[in-house]
C-alpha cells in the first residue's frame, strides 16, 4: 500500500513537471513585456514571476519562483505528510473511537461545495475577480475533470477499506478533494486579487470537511491529506491549462499586477500547519511502571496581528495525538492476581489540546524570506487515556476479554510553547514556513493502576501524579495567508 501511495505522489510530481516545462521559458519574462508585447500567442500564459522586481540571487530562489514549484509545492507537501501519517492512521481512529465514538453528522456532504458556490456567486453579483466567465468555466471545468478522474481511478485500483468497514473505497477522500479544489478556485479568483479573507474562508471550510470525514469515521487521516493534495493540484493544473488556452484574454488587471509587499510591511497572518512531536517522553508511575509516549501527529491553526513589521500578538489552537506503550509490560502481566491470564498489553492513545496566546516576532531578511519566533502560553489539556490488558479467551469460539491496567483523568493545566520558524513567500498573500516548537505542560498526568481483582471486577488505586511533566519537540511545515 505504501508503494502505491509513493507511486501516486511520483506520478503527480512528474505530470506537473511535464506540463510546466513547456512554460518554463516564459517564467522570468518581465511584467511589462507581457503587457506591451502583442506578438505573444494565445497559448502563452500572461502571468510572470511575481517576484520579478527582485534579483534571483541563488538556485534556491530560482526553484521557488518557477512555475512548476508554484503548482506543486503544496500538493507535494501534503502527499509527503499523507505518507508519513499512514503510521498514525490507527492511533487517530482509536483516539476518535475512544473520545467521540457517537460522532455522526452529515454537514460534510453539503459543505464540500460551499467554496465553489461562493466563487460563482461572487462572479454572478458582479464582484471582479481573476477571470472572465469563459475563462473561469474553462479552468474550473478542467480542474473538476482532473480531480474526478484521479479520485475515482485511485479508489477503484487501491481498494482501501474505510475505518468503519462500510466500503473498500477509502483512499483518497473524494469529499476532501472536492472541498480543497473549490477552495483553491476561491483563493485564485478572489483571495489573490481582492482579499486573503476569501482564501482563509475557503481553506478553513475545506479543512472542516477533512476533519469531519475523520470524525465521522469515514476516512483515515492519510486519506484526507491525500485528498487535499489531489484537490489543490487539480485546480492548479486546471488553471494552468486554462491560461494556456486563453492567453491574455479574459484576465483582470488585479490578477496581473501582483508584486511582493515591501520589507517594512506588517506580516499579519493566518496559518494551518502539521508535523510530528519528535521527542519521546516517558511517564514514570509510582509502582515503577514506565509508560512511553511515542512520536505523535501534530496539527494546528494560528494567527497573529502585527503592530509593527517586527512585533505582533497572536494565538494558536493545536492538537497532538500520541501512542502510549509500557516499557516494562512484564511487570504488569506478572501481577499475582492476574494468574497468568494475560496475553499482551495493548497500546493506549492520548490526545493533548492547547489554546495559547502571546507575542510573535518577525525578522525580514529579504522580500522573500523572514525568520519568526513566538513565545506563547495558556490552556493545555489531555484527554482520558488507558493501557489495556488483553485476556486469553476461555474457548476457541469465545471473544477476547480486556482489562484496563492503567487509566488517566482528563488533565487541564497551564502550558507554554516557544517556537522558531523560517518562511518563504510564494505569492503576494501566501507563504510556506518550516518550524520547530518546544512545548511544556506544567501539570503532571494523573494515573490510576490496577491493584487487584474482586470477584472478576478490577480494583484500582487512587489517582496519583506521574513523576514528569509533559514536554515535546515539534517539527513541521505550514501554509501562511497574509493580510497586508
Question: What is this structure's SSE topology?
Answer:
Layout: H1 2-21, H2 31-36, H3 59-64, H4 67-85, H5 89-99, H6 108-111, H7 114-124, H8 133-158, H9 174-191, H10 196-215, H11 221-246, H12 253-256, E1 269-277, E2 281-284, E3 290-293, E4 296-306, E5 311-326, H13 329-333, E6 342-346, E7 348-364, E8 369-382, E9 386-391, E10 401-408, E11 411-427, E12 430-441, E13 446-454, E14 457-460, E15 464-465, E16 470-482
Distance between the termini: 43 Å
What are the segments in which pLDDT stays under 50 over at least 5 consecutive residues?
Answer: 1-49
Largest sheet: 8 strands, antiparallel, barrel
H and E string:
HHHHHHHHHHHHEEEEEHEEEEEEEEEEE
The residue-averaged pLDDT reads 80
Helix/strand class: alpha+beta
Number of strands: 16
> What is the molecular shape?
globular
Helix content: 25-40%
The neighbouring-strand order within the major sheet is 1-4-5-7-8-11-12-16
- Range of strand content: 25-35%
Descriptive account of the structure:
- There is one protein chain.
- It contains 13 helices and 16 strands.
- It is an alpha+beta fold and 484 residues long.
- The strands form two sheets. An eight-stranded antiparallel beta barrel has the order 1-4-5-7-8-11-12-16. Strands 6, 9, 10, 13, 14 and 15 form a six-stranded antiparallel β-sheet that branches.
- The longest helix has 26 residues, at 133-158.
- The chain is globular and about 80 Å long.
Looking at this protein, list some descriptive labels.
484 residues; eight-stranded antiparallel beta barrel; six-stranded antiparallel sheet; 13 helices; 16 strands
Amino acid at each position: 500500500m505504501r508503494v502505491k501511495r509513493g507511486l501516486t505522489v511520483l506520478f503527480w510530481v512528474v505530470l506537473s513537471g511535464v506540463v510546466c516545462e513547456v512554460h518554463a521559458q516564459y517564467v522570468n519574462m518581465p511584467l511589462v513585456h507581457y503587457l506591451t508585447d502583442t506578438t505573444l500567442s494565445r497559448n502563452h500564459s500572461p502571468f510572470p514571476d511575481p517576484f520579478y522586481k527582485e534579483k534571483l540571487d541563488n538556485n534556491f530562489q530560482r526553484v521557488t519562483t518557477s512555475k512548476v514549484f508554484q503548482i506543486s509545492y503544496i500538493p507535494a507537501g501534503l502527499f509527503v505528510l499523507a505518507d508519513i501519517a499512514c503510521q498514525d492512521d490507527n492511533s487517530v481512529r482509536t483516539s476518535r473511537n475512544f473520545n467521540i465514538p457517537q460522532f455522526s453528522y452529515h454537514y460534510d456532504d453539503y459543505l464540500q461545495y460551499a467554496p465553489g458556490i461562493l466563487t460563482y456567486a461572487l462572479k454572478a453579483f458582479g464582484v471582479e475577480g481573476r477571470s472572465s466567465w469563459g475563462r473561469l468555466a474553462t479552468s474550473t471545468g478542467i480542474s473538476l475533470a482532473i480531480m474526478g478522474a484521479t479520485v475515482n481511478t485511485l479508489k477503484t485500483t487501491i481498494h482501501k477499506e474505510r475505518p468503519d468497514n462500510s466500503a473498500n473505497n477509502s483512499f483518497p477522500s473524494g469529499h476532501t478533494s472536492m472541498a480543497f479544489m473549490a477552495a483553491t478556485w476561491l483563493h485564485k479568483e478572489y483571495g489573490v486579487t481582492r482579499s486573503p479573507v476569501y482564501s482563509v474562508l475557503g481553506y478553513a471550510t475545506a479543512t472542516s470537511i477533512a476533519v469531519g470525514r475523520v470524525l465521522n469515521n469515514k476516512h483515515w487521516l492519510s486519506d484526507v491529506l491525500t485528498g487535499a493534495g489531489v484537490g489543490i493540484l487539480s485546480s492548479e493544473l486546471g488553471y494552468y491549462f486554462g491560461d494556456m488556452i486563453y492567453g491574455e484574454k479574459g484576465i483582470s488587471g488585479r490578477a496581473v499586477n501582483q508584486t511582493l509587499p515591501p520589507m517594512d510591511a506588517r506580516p499579519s497572518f493566518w496559518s494551518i500547519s502539521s508535523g510530528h512531536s519528535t521527542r519521546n517522553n516517558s511517564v514514570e508511575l509510582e509502582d515503577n511502571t514506565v509508560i512511553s509516549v511515542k512520536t505523535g501527529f501534530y496539527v494546528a491553526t494560528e494567527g497573529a496581528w502585527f503592530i509593527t513589521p517586527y512585533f505582533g500578538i497572536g494565538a494558536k489552537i493545536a492538537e497532538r495525538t500520541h501512542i502510549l506503550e509500557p516499557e516494562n509490560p512484564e511487570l504488569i502481566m506478572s501481577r499475582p492476581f492476574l494468574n497468568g491470564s494475560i496475553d499482551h498489553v495493548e497500546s493506549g492513545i492520548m490526545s493533548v489540546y492547547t489554546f495559547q496566546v502571546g507575542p510573535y516576532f518577525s525578522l525580514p531578511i529579504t522580500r522573500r524570506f523572514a525568520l519568526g519566533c513566538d513565545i506563547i502560553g495558556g490552556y493545555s489539556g489531555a484527554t482520558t487515556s488507558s493501557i489495556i490488558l488483553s485476556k486469553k479467551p476461555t474457548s476457541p469460539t469465545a471473544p477476547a476479554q480486556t482489562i484496563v491496567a492503567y487509566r488517566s483523568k482528563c488533565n487541564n493545566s497551564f502550558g507554554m510553547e516557544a517556537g522558531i520558524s523560517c518562511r518563504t513567500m510564494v505569492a503576494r498573500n501566501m507563504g510556506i514556513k518550516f518550524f520547530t516548537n518546544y512545548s511544556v505542560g506544567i501539570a503532571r498526568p494523573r494515573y490510576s493502576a490496577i491493584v487487584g481483582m474482586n470477584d472478576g471486577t478490577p480494583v484500582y488505586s487512587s489517582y496519583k501524579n506521574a513523576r514528569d511533566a509533559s514536554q515535546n519537540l515539534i517539527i513541521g511545515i505550514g501554509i501562511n495567508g497574509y493580510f497586508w
